[in-house]
Design goal:
The complex is a heterodimer of chains A (109) and B (880). Chain A has 109 residues and is an alpha+beta fold. Classes of the chains: A alpha+beta (109), B alpha+beta (880). Chains A and B meet through helix 3 and strand 3 of A and helix 1, helix 2 and helix 4 of B.
């Protein structure tokens, strides 16, 4: 609790959607990618990753498919659905608005 | 398109749940493998790599749970799991499960059956068009004795002619037909009604086949027409539509069948099978009487007119008639009415509601008992539950399991109960054919919904009560409590004692109500009719008016021949004929005046029950001839101008003089009083009333009840007597062949039915309460084995232990008894109107019930208490 790299509630969904928008990916790769791109700042815990993935899948934002992974083993690959793409755009716009607003407040103070 | 994806997802999650679980497992394992591979690449050895990966991964079980929690249908999965647990726990204790289910089945079954009857009979609207606007009409007699008196046809005619409140008024009266057999069938007595032509249209009913009566049918000059019930048509005419417009023979006369009524039509009652127009059936002059009260009427109020307005208008018309005939004391002074439904079922409303209340009590007791059993089980599982809670099991989760368990019990019980109710309702319908609206009784959707609601209610009630006892905050206490050497805290059994006391209290209420009804029924059956009831056979005979004209010699000859031949039968001690035997009902009364007395003031009248009897009737029934003699058998027809009165008549109308030799004037004919006979009751429940007897041989009656007395098995005489009847007149049906005992049993059927049913419920409750007491005390003894063992080891005497355990068990019974006795005072007042010959607070019943309850309670407690006193202290202490 309260660790600096804990993700704000709801932002994990956005990060996942953004990450899988680049192409189908399995859970491990998604976690790694977020970690890499955020320069090791954002650590995604398995405890939040898989429930989030399953929730997004249940909601129809992402779809899953079993395919051979780079190691030759079957893995579950997640990809963005059309509905998920719309959702991603909406969430991105929201996020931009929010972070810009926070930025304004922070700079002012 | 998203909803489509979601739907597909949902279907997958519902039907491919096992596969999804396996895949989740696989997905997580893949993640772990990648982590291990990464660790290996970072230079760890394989063991280290594995442990580090697992550490990083966290609690895999929790992760699995959390991922699954996002899936849809999780609630269903949880429900299924609770259900599985519930079934499994119940399966492990089949004895408990079977007892609880049976108890619930009895409770729910009795309630569903009674609810079915109450709903069908009392609550369902009548199967007529706009039944709210239908009212049953009556006359209010001038002397205020009969506020709901039957109607004179002349008064009705004026009502119909003058009123503006009713869109329709219909008249009807009882009729009994002998339906002649065609092609070898036996003749048969059939109950019917004579009615005005508009009876069906007033009710808003149409014949299923053929046509309704028209005004043209309802005249004395019209051709004879008849409508037939669906049941009679099916039974007697095999449902053949060719019977329409054909003739059947009723009382030896030809009637054209013009229509068949729909199945289920039962008005005025279910026994009525034939309807014929009254103005054709009765002589025209008869239909003008304004004092001869013989008929009932039903009216349909015009829209916007209230029943009170309608009856007020009819009262004005009646009053006017009375004022026009001041000399006639039998003309009523007002009209009266009741809503039609109330009129048809008013008599059975209270008994039915009392029985429903009784079944409600039984169900409550059943629920309390099941709750009690569940509490006992919860107590036995206290340690397990405490451990589960200590491990983080949610309170809600435990409550849900408990509720599921009681839901399973009551659902199984309810299903069985519904079957039970189905059987009970069928039995009731077949045994209570005479009950009003019995034809309307059926199990339908509303009853099914009621059953489901009852099941849910019982489950909630039993489950919540038992959950109340499992207090979560006593977790530590529970764990400590079970430490060696200490016995269970008192608080744990307090709830069970309370439940038991409530159970016993309700049982007492049921027992006392049943006791009162039983005693009252016994009183009723043992009330002295005033005549012999052993070895007496009765049968109704009706002579067709066409061939046996009254007044005339034909019926006299018939009756004389019949009696002569019956008396000659071997085994017959005596025989006689009367209109109605004691216990058979009020039948009819007649106004009279005493010739030797000064005339009564204008507008006042004397009347008494009227019977025609043959000279041998009094001897045959064992009615004592107190003074004088019986009718002279040689005086017939015009010469039969004699009368006999009973003692009550002599006392009321000749208080200080000798009635013998005086003359009674009835219908303008003088009759000399030749004898005084003992009092008899026309109904078991009524005190003897004045009765005037006139000679049957005057030839004015062509129907009556034949009574035969024998010294041995009188029922064996039924066939020979019927054979004699057939020989005298081949086309003569006989009905109601009953011994006096059977006749009286039939006349008190309602009372016997109510008392027996209530007694059954009470016995059931007593059994349940006894089982409850036994269970609780056994449980307490088992819990306190250690303590008792120590006491005995320290020198407590076994009698002391026995006494203390007995008192422990009897205390809730005593509380319950006290509470029950108080509640019974209220209940007894409610059933006061159903009692005969005893007070609602009959001390004998109250005392007997208290004694019986204490006895049963003591018996139930004795075994566990005795077992406690026989404990071997060494074994008791070692057991822990």
């Amino acid at each position: 609790m309260g660790k600096p790299n804990d993700l704000v509630q709801g932002t994990l969904d956005l990060l996942i959607l953004k990450t899988v928008s680049l192409g189908a990916m399995h859970g491990w790769a998604i976690a790694k990618r977020i970690q890499q791109i955020s320069a090791e700042v954002l650590q995604v815990q398995q405890g939040s990753l898989y429930p989030a993935l399953h929730r997004l899948e249940q909601q129809g934002w992402i779809a899953a498919q079993w395919a051979e992974s780079e190691t030759g083993r079957q893995a579950k690959f997640y990809s963005l659905t059309a509905a998920g793409r719309g959702q991603l755009e909406k969430e991105t716009a929201n996020w931009n608005r929010l972070s810009a607003a926070i930025g304004l407040v922070m700079n002012e103070a | 398109m998203r909803w489509l994806a979601q739907l597909r997802m949902r279907m997958q999650m519902l039907f491919l749940r096992g596969k999804a679980t396996a895949r989740l497992e696989d997905e997580l394992r893949f993640h772990l493998e990648r982590q291990i591979a990464e660790n290996l690449a970072a230079g760890m050895n394989s063991e280290e790599a594995r442990y580090a990966a697992l550490r990083k991964f966290g609690n895999p079980a929790l992760l699995r749970e959390q991922a699954r929690a996002t899936w849809s249908w999780t609630w269903l999965e949880l429900l299924a799991r609770d259900l599985r647990y519930g079934v499994r726990t119940l399966w492990r204790t089949p004895g408990f499960a079977i007892v609880a289910i049976l108890v619930m089945a009895l409770g729910i079954g009795a309630n569903v059956a009674l609810f079915t009857v109450v709903r069908s009979v009392l609550l369902k609207p009548l199967p007529f068009v706009e039944p709210d606007r239908l009212v049953a009409l009556y006359e209010h007699s001038a002397d205020d004795q009969y506020p709901y008196n039957v109607i004179a046809p002349g008064v009705f005619a004026e009502w119909r002619r003058q009123n503006r409140s009713f869109s329709d008024l219909a008249l009807f009266g009882d009729a009994e037909f002998s339906l002649s057999g065609a092609s070898g069938q036996l003749p048969e007595k059939v109950r019917g009604a004579s009615c005005t032509w508009n009876l069906l249209s007033t009710l808003g009913v149409q014949p299923a086949l053929g046509r309704d009566f028209t005004a043209a049918d309802d005249r004395h000059s019209a051709n004879a027409t008849v409508l037939m019930s669906w049941g009679l048509w099916k039974r007697r005419f095999a449902g053949n539509p060719a019977i329409l417009n054909q003739s059947i023979h009723l009382d030896g006369q030809s009637y054209t069948v013009i229509g068949i009524l729909p199945a289920g039509f039962a008005y005025p009652d279910a026994a009525t099978q034939l309807w014929t127009p009254v103005y054709h059936y009765e002589p025209a002059a008869y239909m003008e009487h304004i004092e001869n009260h013989q008929f009932q009427a039903v009216g349909r109020l015009k829209p916007g007119v209230t029943a009170a307005q309608g009856v007020a208008e009819l009262s004005v018309i009646t009053r006017r008639l009375r004022d026009q005939h001041p000399e006639n004391p039998f003309v009523s002074k007002a009209a009266n009415m009741r809503p039609l439904l109330e009129d048809m079922v008013g008599d059975i409303e209270r008994p039915l509601l009392v029985l429903l209340a009784a079944t409600g009590c039984v169900l409550l007791i059943a629920c309390l008992n099941v709750a009690n059993l569940l509490v006992a089980r919860a107590a036995a599982r206290r340690k397990e539950l405490a451990i589960r809670m200590a491990m983080g099991g949610g309170r809600l989760r435990l409550l849900r399991e408990r509720l599921m368990e009681s839901l399973l019990l009551s659902a199984a019980g309810g299903t069985m109960g519904l079957l039970l109710a189905y059987g009970a309702v069928r039995w009731l319908v077949s045994t209570r054919q005479g009950m009003s609206r019995v034809e309307a009784i059926s199990i339908d959707g509303a009853v099914a919904a009621f059953t489901v609601a009852l099941i849910a209610l019982c489950a909630l009630f039993a489950g919540l009560i038992s959950s109340l006892s499992a207090k979560g905050n006593q977790l530590l206490l529970s764990l400590q409590d079970s430490a060696r050497g200490s016995s269970t805290g008192r608080a744990h059994t307090a709830l069970r004692r309370l439940l038991l006391a409530a159970e016993v209290g309700l049982t007492v209420v049921l027992l006392i109500s049943a006791g009162l009804l039983l005693k009252s029924y016994q009183r009723l059956r043992s009330s002295d009719l005033g005549c012999i009831t052993q070895n007496v056979l009765t049968m109704r005979i009706g002579l067709p008016g066409a061939r046996y004209k009254t007044p005339g010699p034909a019926p006299v000859n018939f009756f004389e021949t019949l009696l002569g031949r019956v008396r000659a039968l071997p085994g017959v001690e005596a025989a006689g004929i009367v209109e109605a035997v004691p216990g058979q009902g009020y039948w009819q009364d007649e106004g009279f005046s005493v010739v030797e007395h000064p005339p009564l003031p204008q507008g006042l009248a004397q009347y008494a029950i009227f019977r025609s009897a043959d000279p041998g009737y009094f001897a045959a029934m064992g009615i004592p001839l107190l003074r004088g003699q019986t009718f002279d058998p040689n005086r017939k027809l015009d010469r039969a101008n004699q009368a006999i009165v009973n003692a009550a008549f002599a006392k009321q109308y000749f208080p200080n003089e000798d009635p013998l030799g005086k003359h009674l004037k009835v219908e303008n004919e003088d009759h000399e009083i030749v004898g005084i006979v003992g009092d008899t009751r026309y109904s078991l429940a009524e005190d003897p009333k004045p009765i005037q007897y006139y000679p049957l041989y005057a030839g004015k009656e062509n129907s009556g009840t034949l009574v035969i007395r024998s010294s041995r098995d009188v029922e064996a005489l039924a066939l020979p007597v019927q054979r004699i009847l057939q020989e005298i007149d081949r086309d003569l049906p006989v009905s109601d062949v009953l011994t006096m005992d059977q006749l009286l049993g039939k006349s008190t059927q309602d009372e016997s039915f109510n008392a027996t049913l209530l007694a059954t419920f009470a016995a059931l409750s007593l059994l349940l309460a006894a089982v409850g007491l036994f269970g609780v005390l056994s449980y307490i003894v088992a819990q306190r084995t250690g303590e008792i063992g120590i006491r005995i080891a320290l020198g407590a005497r076994r009698e002391q232990v026995l006494r203390q355990m007995l008192l422990d068990g009897l205390r809730p019974a005593l509380f319950g008894l006290a509470f029950g006795l108080v509640a019974s005072v209220g209940a007894a007042r409610l059933i006061r109107s159903m009692l005969y010959g005893i007070q609602p607070l009959d001390p004998a019943v109250f005392a007997a019930v208290s004694a019986m309850l204490l006895l049963v309670a003591a018996m139930a407690c004795l075994i566990p208490a005795w077992r406690a006193s026989r404990l071997d202290p060494i074994q008791a202490l070692r057991m822990e």
